[in-house]
Write a structure and sequence with these properties.
Elements: H1 6-15, H2 20-29, E1 40-45, H3 51-62, E2 65-70, H4 77-88, H5 98-101, H6 105-119, E3 125-130, H7 140-147, H8 149-152, E4 158-164, E5 179-182, H9 187-195, H10 199-205, H11 218-240, H12 244-258, H13 260-263, H14 276-285, H15 287-290, H16 297-300, E6 301-304, E7 313-316, H17 320-334, H18 340-344, H19 358-362, E8 374-375, H20 376-386, H21 395-406, E9 410-412, H22 422-429, E10 442-445, H23 449-458, H24 464-467
Parallel strand pairs: 1-4, 1-5, 2-3, 3-4
Antiparallel strand pairs: 6-7, 8-10, 9-10
Helix pairs in contact: 9-11, 11-12, 17-20, 17-21
């Protein structure tokens, strides 16, 4: 039975653009009656795709009891278990020994059963594990226990909602609990979400270095913000994908510089009506800002300044899809093609464990061995399997692949990856007569394990699970 009416869902869909299907799925899966709820519900999607806000707003409007656990603040599994128990005993007078109750999963579920008997509630209660993939240590064992929570709990009125941004863990690929996928936002949806901010929110969230917004009325700020947000989306959508956190950060950081000609009196804006010509003039005056790296320097460069240092150390970053392409290239070079179905397929019931022969034991591991060659089509197939978002157009991926090739992060198989001299590089440049996207062209990754591991940690991709399977 649905907890929200159609009218309530429509009002909530206006507040959360692009999430109508996900709201209908939540309305059909979550109920106030405990017997109707699934023991586990998974919300999966890319970073900044609205999973947490959609779940929280739905539960608040449906008036369903829940305990929200921010897993990204837990540095270990034991701390996460302690927070779950602490959230559930807040309504009771029971005092427990967390050190003993959270020593292992068996003790945890035993204590959890006792707390549920003490609560003695007939209504359903949800435990929301937000960012469960960002716990400070591997949680494969905990994840497997949560998937089997219906077998470990004696009460039916408790359900777990798992919210994560990475790909689905291998332990749950054959599970039958419901999954709700949050697809990437389109450009129109990103612009609509940015435009939901009112003048008070814009004043509060912008930096206000020189109090430039104090010279404008709320109507003028809203009019400027409406003409400004589509430019931000069109410029940086390919860089950050549909990550609304990154888009909001960039938009708030650059807004004051964007409207500076209006504040200085060089241009005037109308509080009502269309300001198309004014928007065009503002874009022309600020075009250098949108084509420069200064606007996104805080998100793409991490600067470390010592007190006694005379220089700044920079850590460079790259677009989101390029990181997944490099991880896919590394997996293509250090995994065998015959094991692709076993490693990357979602159907795992009939899979046998990969057998390692004596020759495999003598072979050096992937951290020290030479990368193998792979075809572009195999790289693309692995990329589609590990990417958390469905890629609509392949043209953007081909462009980023070509950029990685120019940067020599992915090189042609005939190029010696251990050669760093300029002479070798010049010789490699003369061998560009091949078709980059030809199925017969062989490639190999030209990035060390330390760099790949850091990139995988940045996008929260468990690359070691595929290399040690």
């Amino acid at each position: 039975m649905s907890v929200l009416s159609d009218d309530a869902l429509e009002r909530l869909a206006i507040e959360l653009p692009g999430r109508q299907d996900q709201l209908r799925a939540l309305n059909g899966l979550i109920s106030k009656e405990a017997i109707s709820n699934s023991p586990v519900i998974a919300l999966n999607g890319g970073p900044g795709s609205g999973k947490s806000i959609t779940c929280r707003r739905f539960l608040d409007m449906a008036d369903i009891g829940y305990s929200w656990i921010p897993c990204d603040e837990c540095i270990s599994t034991r701390i996460l278990l302690q927070r779950i128990l602490a959230a559930l005993i807040s309504d009771t007078k029971k005092i427990i020994d967390y050190g003993q109750a959270c020593s292992n999963l068996t003790a945890f579920f035993g204590q959890l059963n006792y707390i549920l008997r003490e609560r003695d509630e007939e209504k359903s209660h949800l435990v929301i594990l937000d960012h469960i993939d960002e716990v400070g240590e591997p949680i494969n064992q905990l994840y497997g226990a949560l998937v089997r929570s219906n077998e470990l709990l004696t009460s039916d009125n408790l359900s777990f909602v798992l919210i994560y941004s990475t790909i689905e863990p291998q332990v749950s690929k054959s599970s039958i609990y419901p999954h709700i996928y949050f697809k990437r936002y389109t450009k129109l949806e990103c612009s609509t979400i940015l435009r939901l901010a009112d003048a008070k929110t814009i004043r509060r969230t912008t930096e206000q270095r020189n109090d430039v917004l104090d010279h404008l009325s709320d109507q003028q700020i809203t009019a400027l913000w409406w003409s400004y947000t589509p430019i931000i989306v069109d410029t940086f959508h390919l860089l950050v994908g549909s990550d609304m956190h990154a888009l909001k950060s960039i938009a708030r950081r650059a807004f004051e510089s964007y409207i500076e000609p209006v504040v200085n009196g060089k241009l005037s804006v109308h509080a009502t009506g269309r300001n198309t010509q004014i928007a065009m003039n503002l874009f022309k005056k600020n075009q250098h800002m949108f084509t420069s790296e200064l606007l996104v320097r805080n998100s793409l460069f991490l600067y470390v300044q010592d007190d006694n240092a005379d220089h700044i150390l920079a850590k460079y970053d790259m677009p989101l899809y390029s990181k997944y392409l490099l991880c896919a290239a590394y997996l293509s070079s250090f995994t065998r093609p015959k094991n692709d179905i076993k490693l990357f397929s979602r159907i795992r019931e009939n899979k046998r464990r990969i057998r390692h022969s004596a020759k495999d034991d003598l072979r050096a591991n992937y951290r020290t061995s030479t990368p193998g060659s792979f075809e572009y089509e195999r790289l693309l197939a692995i990329f589609q399997c590990i990417s958390p978002e469905k890629i609509g157009s392949i043209l953007d991926i081909q462009t980023q692949f070509a950029t990685l090739s120019v940067q020599r992060l992915i090189v042609h198989a005939s190029v010696n990856v251990n050669a760093n001299t300029s002479e070798t590089a010049s010789k490699a440049g003369t061998r560009m007569a091949y078709d980059m996207l030809d199925s017969a062209t062989k490639w190999r990754v030209n990035v060390s394990w330390d760099v790949i591991r850091q990139i995988a940690l940045d996008i929260r991709f468990p690359i070691e699970d595929y290399l040690t399977d």
